[in-house]
Fold:
Amino acid sequence: MSDTSGVPSAGSMVALTAAQWATRQPTGQGVQNGAVVAYTPVVTAVPLKMQAATAQTWINQQIATSFAMGTPFTADMKAYVLAINAIANGTDTASTTLPARPTDVMTTATA
Structure:
């Protein structure tokens, strides 16, 4: 390290033995009461309305592709869009998870 300006003062750091240094982990450890301890970060749940808003981005991509290809959505995809929109706009307050994305998004073209 050629520049130590970003390094805390020695008094702010925790001394490690050679064995602790050899077994340190790049993540999953923290300092508590001056000792290195295992650390598991708190998982923050993403609100369902926010998940639905993210799903709408994917839906908009599918709309553009559907329009460009001249191929309409399947009934399953139409139902999915309605369900996601209801969650995103707050009309559906009963759902606790997003519906699964349909496997068939657009109808198959017939020649």
